[in-house]
Amino acid sequence: MKKLIICLSILFCSTLANPVHFEHSAHAEPQKPTPPYAKWSVIAMDKVKEKYPNAKVIDYLYVGKTRGQPNSTERFKFWMKDTQKEFGVYVNIEFNNETEQVTNVTYQETTR
Asked: Can you tell me whether residue 108 is helix, strand or coil?
């Protein structure tokens, strides 16, 4: 125990005599702007979990937007896994352009 105290005392005193200076080299990453589809991806994620409560979302992909009047559609592809298989699900979120209210959600399963 005395050896430990002596070692710590020597280490502490030598640190005071020769302080170690660490340079902070980590640079803050510039924040990426939030993509315009972010809101719809959250909704799509909630909807696919609601539709497939026993499956886990393994991955997802933003497919794109189809603009229309008065509604547009945001399309996502989810890769799901349940106890027996893995499968894909396309989720289409249709919404009113002016109000951004969801008007329809459709699902299409795929094997790839």
From this structure: strand
